[in-house]
Amino acid sequence: MISPADFPKVFEALTGAPPFPWQASLFDKFSSGLVPASANIPTGLGKTSVIAIWLCALASKPQSMPRRLVYVVNRRTVVDQTTNEVEKWRERLALANLTQPLAQLASIPLATNEPPLAISTLRGQFADNREWSADPARPAVIVGTVDMIGSRLLFNGYGVGYKVRPHHAGLLGQDSLVVHDEAHLEPAFQTLLETVSAQQVTDREFRPLRVLALSATSRSPSNAAHTLSPADEENPTVHRRLNAPKRPSLHPVTDEKKETAEKLAALALAKKGSGRAVLIFARSLEVVHRVIAALEKDKLENPPAKLVGPLRGFERDRLVENPVFQRFLPASNLPPSGVPIPAGTVYLVATSAGEVGVNLSADDLVCDLSTFESMAQRIGRVNRFGELTDSTIEIVHPETFDEQDPLAPYRQRTLDLFRLLVARGTASPAALNALQRASRIAAFSPQPEMLPATEVLFDAWALTTIQGRLPGRPAVAPYLHGVAAWEPPETRVVWRSEVDWITPPLRSWYDPVELLADFPIRSHEILRDSSYRVIQQLMLLASRPEAATASVWLLDETGNVSVVPLAEFSDRDSESRIQDKTILLPPSLGGLLPDGSLDGKAPAGVAKADVADTLPNRNSSQQRLRMRVDGKGGAIRVPDGYRLIRPPLDLLVETDSEEGSGEGELPPAGQGRYWCWLESADGLPDANTHQSRSSVLLEVHRTDVERLTDSITAKVQLRDDLRKLFALAARYHDSGKSRREWQRGIGNSSRAILLAKASPRLRSPQTGDGYRHEFGSLLDLTKDDEFLALPDEDRELVLHLVA
Questions:
Q1: If phi over 0 gives left and psi between -120 and 50 gives alpha, with beta otherwise, what is residue 758?
Q2: Most Cβ neighbours (<10 Å): which of 558, 618, 726, 759?
Q3: What is the pLDDT of residues 376-417, one digit of tens each?
Q4: Of 347, 343, 354, 365, which is closest to residue 294 (Cα–Cα)?
C-alpha cells in the first residue's frame, strides 16, 4: 500500500519527475475511492499524469479504482504522445515497485517478462493489440479519440467488426475510468458519458464506468472540480509555466477572405532571420495552402511543415519524422533519428488539427482569429514550459465581421478579450485565467444541440447482429458530437485492394461485411475530410474513362456494406449518401497524393494506397498479412508466425482461367489461387484468438476455458451466484463441436478424437453443411440437471452466454 508520504517517491520513480501538489492531492482522492467529476488543470502542467496517478492508486488499493483507464483525446494527432508516455511508465514499473501489485490483479498468468499493464491504442504497434481485451482483470490503458471510443461504447465501433462490438462495449463500459481530455471541446460526448454513468447507477450495475472530465478551459465551472491549490502556485515550476511570457498583438485586415493568408505569411516571413520556431494557425484549409505557397515562394532555408486534418493517418504519423516538425516537439517526444534538427528559422502551418492532443511548443505564434477556446489551445502551444522570455502572439482579425458567419458574435467577444490582454501585455495562462469567467465562456463557440440518449436507445444500439437500418436505432455520430450547423458532415476514405479483387461473381462467396469484420479498418488507413470536399474529389475520379466500370464500398456505422458504382457519385447531389460514412476506394484508381491527402486527379501508383498490412506488432513484425497462394497442394500453407483469420474457402477471391475453371467460378477443392487473410500469431494472447497454430483437443479446450473463466470471475470479484452461472456456461459453450458435422467441417476425419480448434494443416477449401455448433451447445445445455434447476432469469443468462 502506498501512503501519501510514499507517493512522491513512487511517482518520481515512475515518471522521472516529482509530483506537483495537485497530483499528490488527486492521488489521495483516488486512493479513497473518490473520482472527481472534473479536473481543471492549466496547459503545460502534466494533465496526462492522471494515468500515472491512477496506476499508483490501483496498485495501492485495487478495490478503490477501476481496472481500465480509457483516455479519450479530442482528435487524432501526429504522434500518439499519450501512448508514448504510458509506454515509458510501463518500462519503469519495477523502479516504482509496482510490477508485483499490478501483476497480482491479472487472472490469466503473464508470460515471462510480460508487463502487467496492457496498453492499447488506435495506431502503430499498440493498435487494438488485444492486450486490453484478453483478460478483463488485467490493468489496461486504452487511448483513443472521441469517435473511436464513443462509437465502441455505443456498440458501433468504427473499424470494428460486428462480432466483437459487444466485447468492446462491455469492457469500455464496465470497470473503467474514462478520462475525457479537453472535455470542453466535445460537450456532447461529455454529456453522453455522464448519461451512461447515470443509467448504470440507476440499474445498479456491478462496476459502472466512472468519468473524469479533464480540461484547461472548462465551460461549466464546478466547486467540486479538482484544480490547483495555493501550494501549486508557490511551486517554482508551476509558477514559471503559469506566467510564461507571451506578448500578444493584433493586426486588422479589411477583407478577411482575401487578405488573411497574405497577412499571415507576411507576419511569419518577418521572422525569417530570427532562428525561431514559428507556428502558424489558420481556420481554413484553403488559407493554410495559400500561406504555405507564399512561404515556399520565398525559398526558405527549411521548407515549412504542414499539419492539417484531411491527411491519412499513415502519412500523418510519419510527419514526426520531419526534422522541421521535430523542432516543435519537446525532447521527451522526439523519435530516434539520425537526421539533424535544423537550427534556423522553421515554420509549422496548421489547422485546428494542431490545437489539441499534441505536445507542441513553438517560440512564436502567428494566427487568424478563432473563438476563445480555440485561441486558448493555440496559445498553449507557445512557450509551453516558460523557458523563453520573448515569445510573441500575433493575431490577424477582420475589422468588421461577416454577419453570415454563425461564429461571428463569439469571435467578436474573443477579440474584445484579446484587446484587454494586449493592454496588459501578456497572454500567459495566468492572464487568460484572470479574465472574467463569464466573458470567457460567452466567447466560446456555441454548444451544439445535444441529443438525449436513453435506455431504449442503448438497447437498440446493442443489437449488433442485426445489420442495416433498424427502426428506433439512429446513427451514433450525432450523440457523440451533437448537431452543429457550423460543423460540416465528414466522410472517412480508405483504400483497400479487396475492392479491386472481389468482383461481382465472387461476392456471394465472400461477403464484404464478413471481410471487414475479420480484417477491420485501422486508424492509420483512414483519411477524414468534410463530405463536401470528398464528393468534389469523387466527382473527379468518376470523370476518368478508366473509372466507368469501377465500384466502391460504402460502409455505414452499423457495419453494413453497399457496393456502389463510382459513377453514382458524379454530382454534388450525392453528397448526402456519404455523410458520416466510410467509403472504400480501389487502389487501381489512385486518388491519393504522397502527402496523404485526397486528390481525384492523382493517378494510381504515385502513393501507396493500400496500407492495411503495414501495422506492426510489438515484436516489430507485420501484425496482418494478405498474400496470394497456390492451392494446388490441397491445403494452404500458412507462413510461420501467422494464423489464418478465416477458413480457406472463405478466403477465395480470385480464380485464374488457366486453372480449368470459368472466370468467377469456384475451382475444385485444392485447386486455383487463394487470397489469404492472416494475422500474426506472435505476441497475441492465445486466450482471445479464434485460430490456432496447432490442433486443440475439445476436452482440453473446455477445461482451459472453465479454468480461465473461474480465474477471471474471481479476480474481478463477481458474486458467487453469478460465478456459478459463468462456470456452467463455460462447461457447455463448445459442446456442440462434438458433432461429426462440425468435426468434418474443420478437416478432422478421425473418429477417435474430437477437436475444438484445428491446425491449418488440417484445413482444406471445403464447406460444411451449415451446422452451427452454438445451437448444438444449447441443445446439450437444456438437458443438464443443474441448468434445469435454475430460476428462469438465470437460465436465460446462461443460454445467452453460450449462444
A1: beta
A2: 558
A3: 999 999 999 999 999 999 999 999 999 888 999 999 999 999
A4: 347
If we measure between CA atoms, which residue out of 524, 560, 531 comes closest to residue 145? 524
Per-residue model confidence (pLDDT) at position 690: 42
**Cell (9 digits) for 574:** 450525392
pLDDT of residue 190: 94
Query: What is the separation of C-alpha 188 from the centre of its chain, rounded to a whole number of angstroms?
Result: 18
Number of neighbours of residue 509 by Cβ within 10 angstroms: 16
Express each pLDDT in 16-38 by its tens digit: 999 999 999 999 999 999 999 99
Cell numbers placing 611: 496500407
Distance CA 98, CA 586 (A): 49
Q: Cα–Cα distance between 709 and 705 in angstroms, integer?
A: 6
Query: How confident is residue 520, by pLDDT bands cut at 50, 70 and 90?
Result: confident
Q: What is the DSSP string of 135-193?
A: -TTS-EEEEEEHHHHHHHHTT--TT--TTTHHHHHHHHHBSEEEEEETGGG-HHHHHHH
Distance, in Å, from the CA atom of 80 to the CA atom of 73, rounded to the nearest integer, reads: 10
CA–CA separation, 677 vs 648, rounded Å?
9
Which grid coordinates belong to 322? 520531419
Number of neighbouring beta carbons within 10 Å of residue 333: 18
Give me the amino acid identity at 29: K
What is the SS3 assignment for 622? strand
**Nearest-angstrom CA–CA distance, 609 and 615:** 14
Phi-psi category of 670—alpha, beta or left, where left has phi over 0 and alpha has psi -120 to 50?
left
pLDDT on residue 620: 57
- Extract the runs of DSSP E, i.e. beta strands, from 309-410: 346-350, 364-368, 391-398
- SS3 assignment, position 207: coil
* pLDDT(680) > 90: no
Q: DSSP letter string over 639-673?
A: PTTEEESS-GGGG-----GGGTS-TTSPPPTT-SE
Strand partners, 673: 630
Q: How far apart are CA 353 and CA 456, in angstroms?
A: 35
Helix, strand, or coil (residue 253): strand
According to the model, what pLDDT value does residue 670 have?
Answer: 45
356's grid cell: 489539441
| Minimum mean pLDDT range among 11-15, 66-70, 538-542, 544-548 | 544-548
What are the pLDDT digits (tens) for 470-482? 888 898 989 999 9
| Residue given cell 440518449 in the structure block | 453
Q: Which three cell numbers stand for residue 509?
A: 462467396
What is the predicted pLDDT for the residue at 129?
A: 64
Task: Give the span between the Cα atoms of 502 and 506, in whole angstroms.
Answer: 6
Q: What angle do CA 47, 144, 93 make, to 5 degrees?
A: 60
